[in-house]
C-alpha cells in the first residue's frame, strides 16, 4: 500500500510530440504521366494479364508454361516494387543506391526473360485443343507476353538513356 502511494507521487516524463499526420514519403503525381511511369504501368497490367491467363488454366501439365509463370510473376513483383519506389519518391531518400543502373539491369533482364517466355508461351499454345479454354487463355497470354516484352524493351531504352546521362554528368 505504501509503495503505491510513492509511485503515484512521481511525475512521468512528458511524452514527445509526434506529428503523425505527415509522411516522409511523398506521392509523385507526375510520375505516372511521363514515359517511364506509363511503361511501368503497362508492364504491371500486361504482366498481370499474362500470369492470370496462364494461371487460370491447367498450365502445370505443360512444364514450359511453369517457366512462363515463373518469369511473369517474378518480373511482375519486381516491377511493382520498382513502381512503388518511384511513385513514393523513396529513390530520392536513398541516393547511395544506383537507381538508374538498377532500373537498367531490371528492365534489360526482364525484356530478355520475357522474350524467351513469350516464345515458349506461343509454342505451347499448340499443345492445347483449339477453341477450348486452355487454348484461348494461352493464346491471349502469348500475345500479352509479347506486348510486355515490348514494354520492357522500351523501358530498357529509357533506362539506358538515363544511365548514360548520369554517367556523362559524373
UniProtKB/TrEMBL annotation:
It holds the Pfam family MARVEL. One of its GO terms (cellular component) is membrane. PROSITE patterns: MARVEL. Its main location: membrane. The keyword Transmembrane applies. It comes from the Eukaryota. It is a multi-pass membrane protein. It is found in: Membrane. GO terms for molecular function: structural constituent of myelin sheath. Residues 31-164 form the MARVEL domain. The chain crosses the membrane at residues 35-54, 60-87, 99-120, 140-160. PANTHER family: CKLF-LIKE MARVEL TRANSMEMBRANE DOMAIN-CONTAINING PROTEIN 8, MARVEL-CONTAINING POTENTIAL LIPID RAFT-ASSOCIATED PROTEIN. This is CKLF-like MARVEL transmembrane domain-containing protein 8.
